[in-house]
Amino acid sequence: MLERVSGLGRGERISERWHASESQLEALSLMAERWRANEPLQHILNEAFFMGLSLCSDGRALIPRPETEELIHGMLGLTSNTDTKGSRFLDIGTGSGCIALAWNARRPMDCIVGLDASAAALEQAIVNSERVNSEGITWEHRNVLEDQESWPDDAFDVVISNPPYIPVSETNQMEERVIRKEPKEALFVTDEDPLLFYRRIVFLCVASDWLKSGGWLGFECHKNYAQEVCALMGSEDWQNVECRRDMQDHWRFVFARRR
């Protein structure tokens, strides 16, 4: 917050012996009140950084997390030898658009689709695509839990998703600024079926041919359910199924390739 109102980094403020003006103090006071009210810092600044991109952040979509950067890096490593002329890439539950935009920044030749059930989240994704001057991304308003007959026209080479995966019963273990200020539909699933979205996406990739033969599927998962997500792809339809840990040493990511 000090950096935002001063326009200076911490070292610069010290070396230049910066003193806040009256208007800067007023701006800081307003920000501090929002912080005391448990509003996330990214919403106060209306900015979140993700893989080098400065994105708009407010209550319409989930704030991008560092773990999701690891998901993208993992998938980039697996697909580094794919067609340089361009592949088809699908981000299911795109939210702020962070995954689709980060992928576009690194593989601008790819045809990218960001899909979400929330119209408000897609509005933020569009704002972010304009903010980072990203082109070539199609934003789709769709709910994967509903019938998807006749969509898409062509299968994808890569499907990636960071779906809702936190059981409602874990609400009391989370920070208030998360459960009150971020969209619940992007966070929570029922206690009775925590794998709901994973099972549905795996089904769509195979039964509805959303994913090409030889294409890659990547998930971010709840640390307690990553192994169960792996088990969803234990059939003859999948190969190279792999579960990976995040930087905190939690089982967090699942990658698999369709046969």
What characteristics describe this protein?
259 residues, alpha/beta, Rossmann fold, seven-stranded mixed beta sheet, two-stranded antiparallel sheet, 10 helices, 22% strand, globular
3D structure, described in words:
- The protein has 259 residues and is of the alpha/beta class.
- It has 2 domains: 35 residues, no CATH class; 200 residues, Vaccinia Virus protein VP39 (Rossmann fold, 3-Layer(aba) Sandwich), CATH 3.40.50.150.
- It contains 10 helices and 11 strands.
- α6 links the parallel β3 and β4.
- The radius of gyration is 20 Å and the shape is globular.
Query: So what's the overall shape?
Result: globular
Distance between the termini: 50 Å
The poorly predicted ranges are: none
Number of strands: 11
Number of domains: 2
Widest sheet: strand order? 5-4-3-6-9-11-10
Order of helices and strands: HHHHEEHEHEHEEEHEHEHEE
* Main β-sheet description: 7 strands, mixed
Strand content: 15-25%
Mean pLDDT: 95
Kindly identify the CATH topology of the largest domain.
Rossmann fold
The name of the CATH architecture of the largest domain is 3-Layer(aba) Sandwich
Q: Level of helix content? A: 25-40%
Overall structural class, as computed from helix and strand content, comes to: alpha/beta
Count, helices: 10
Radius of gyration: 20 Å
Q: Give the name of the CATH superfamily of the largest domain.
A: Vaccinia Virus protein VP39
CATH class group of the largest domain: Alpha Beta
